[in-house]
User: Fold this.
Amino acid sequence: MLDSDPAAIPASRRRATLAWLAIALIVAAVALAFAWVGGWLGSSRLTSQRFTNAIETANGQVWRGFRRAHAKGVCVAGYFEGNGQGTALSSARLLAPVRTPFVGRLSIGGGSPYGLDARARVRSMALKLDSDDGQQWRMAMNSFPFFGVSSVEAFYEQTRANTPDPATGKPDPARQAAFAKAHPEFARFADWAAHAPWSTSWANTTFNGVDTFRFVNRAGNVRNVRWSMQPQTPFAGMTPEQREQADADYLAEDLAARLAKGELRWDMVVTLAQADDPVNPSQSWPEDRPRVTVGTVVVESSSAQATGACRDINYDPLVLPTGVEASDDPILAARSAVYSVSFNRREHDIASGEAGAATGHAATPESDR
Amino acid sequence: MNRAGSSAHFNLLARVLHWTMALAILAMLFVGVGMVASLSLRPTLVSLHRPLGIAILLLAAVRLANRLRHPPPALPADLPAIQKAAATASHILLYALMFAMPLVGWAMVSAGGYPVTMPGGFSLPAIAPHDPTVYAVLRTAHTWLALLLFAVVLMHLAAALYHAWIRRDGVFASMARGAGRHRSDIRS
Assistant:
């Protein structure tokens, strides 16, 4: 019957063509959406990979197997001893009056594993604490009291402004000035960097969490907090002349010498926010906010990072136990994202045998670019 | 049991699992590529990705058991041999990846030295040693297997629509609905 209708065949063909077209469009749309979400379409979106690329470029070269930021440091081990004062604030087991062992790392800012200790304005302390309830808390703290910029985009611009000019090997001062002008909040950080006293040791440096977290207690009450590790070792300053004469690795040498005489301690001091205190780490909270000392970090030993237990740990500040949660702090999420890419890259370097210096198998570093 | 029904349509459990997992797997693929690229959404997406991956692993086990007990309807007799072979191969690949992706992910997180955190504050045990080489291999495998899974999912989608709209042979209907109550398929 239909066979005799001359219009029937073209109509069914048209129908099939349309169906094929619809299928192709649907598949292409899903594939395109996937590529967009993955950041593979265009190059304008700032992704974790592009941020990490910018850090590698600013480092001047890729130091295979090393952390892409804060590349130079030592592993430390010890325990945290809670005093119970924090248990009203958070249900995290760490804050109970118990000892929790940690694998930690003390480091200096900068992308080179051969940076000069006395030139590094920023120092940091990272801890991976394993509680006896099976939960883990990782912290990554810095010697600066607040973050230099208020957004991830500005952080990226800062990284790019600090990238050495291939011609001079140094960052372009005009570019740095343009960055500072575009980000007036950075002036406060620059002022800290220029005027804050330099301490003589990791042992007498204060390490600040800087980012904002939420403490949740057993009753479910939530409070925004920040914390600092405040050294029990008395502060001693360093003059510019002393820094000029200091050994390239004086921090690690000093640490080993101090640990040979005994353990080193920092008090963990938690600052409690008021309701409308900002979560942004570039903004400090008023000085009158309540502070609670919740326990003590006790460092007992140190070891070289190439062979130490801290080497293959990503100190992602968002590995948190029950009772501690991330806030909406944008820098916190970005740190977690970029640390992950940095970790993936250096573990790949190590796995592919390209990281002799980072793993203690070669005296000289592999590098490219 | 109900031979007539089982020969034309997947059983109810198979259909529910298929569509639930289709949604879950597609969501996982998008969450996965999104979380490794995003500077802002990573924490939220990671906390979704891990438990959803484990849920898919458990559902895949239930689904395989159901499939072994209740064989799926046969493909149309007039389907060209090459298309039958492609269908069989892609289904084997899909099942393999439904198991492999969560297991590789779990092992990878273990090898990276991370806690395999689930909601409610408990963690799954590590199923691989904390080791940079093991981590690097598994991390790379997780990416490439995800891309392979995405490609196979797209082909599966295209093939399903081809059966529904072009061949109109009842293959799509066998997964889209049950045998009972409905009028007979468009299987002319």
Observations:
- Chain B touches chain A through 39 residues (CB under 8 Å).
